[in-house]
Design brief:
Elements (H helix, E strand, L loop, with lengths): L2 E6 L4 H14 L2 E4 L7 H13 L5 E6 L3 H7 L7 E3 L3 H9 L5 E5 L5 H13 L8 H12 L10
Parallel strand pairs: 1-2, 1-3, 3-5, 4-5
Length: 153
């Protein structure tokens, strides 16, 4: 069973607890990274660092829109956060991008939609032999270098 790290800012506490209840019912191992820090980046950095270090299989971050959490989480090397807003994106976040962190907006999604997106995301799997694998590898390889400039072309 997957281990899931979850955290949010104070705007998203109600949705976070609904997701935790859902994950517990489904049998996932859930660790709560909190909800009281108004500086959402602090929670995002801690959770993303833990997911990137493979302490958890996947992570879920929630703030008002999910945008700030995804920006902050993506600053952590090895963290690949995707903002989930619709079912197709939730599926492709894993299948095409191997996103290990889902970000949600508590003020932009209803509870039922958020739970549906989490279910789709958790049930999707990345295919290492898919055409997307080369694209994901390019992102991982880019993290290993510190380019001075990238030329267009």
């Amino acid at each position: 069973m997957l281990s899931i790290a979850i955290g949010c800012d104070p705007n998203a506490m109600e949705l976070k607890f609904a997701i935790i209840d859902y994950l517990n019912i489904k049998g996932y191992l859930v660790t709560d990274f909190g909800d009281e820090d108004p500086i959402y980046a602090n929670t995002a950095f801690r959770l993303a660092t833990s997911v990137a270090a493979n302490q958890y299989d996947r992570g879920i971050l929630i703030c008002g829109t999910g945008i700030g959490m995804s920006i902050a989480a993506n600053k952590v090397k090895g963290a690949y956060a995707a903002l989930l807003s619709d079912s197709y994106s939730a599926e492709r976040a894993i299948k095409s991008n191997n996103a290990n962190i889902a970000c949600l907006g508590a003020l932009t999604l209803g509870k039922n939609l958020a739970l549906n997106l989490i279910e789709i995301w958790l049930n999707a799997e990345f295919d290492e032999n898919s055409p997307s694998a080369e694209k994901v590898k390019k992102i991982i390889d880019y993290e290993k270098i510190k380019p001075k400039c990238i030329e267009s072309g």
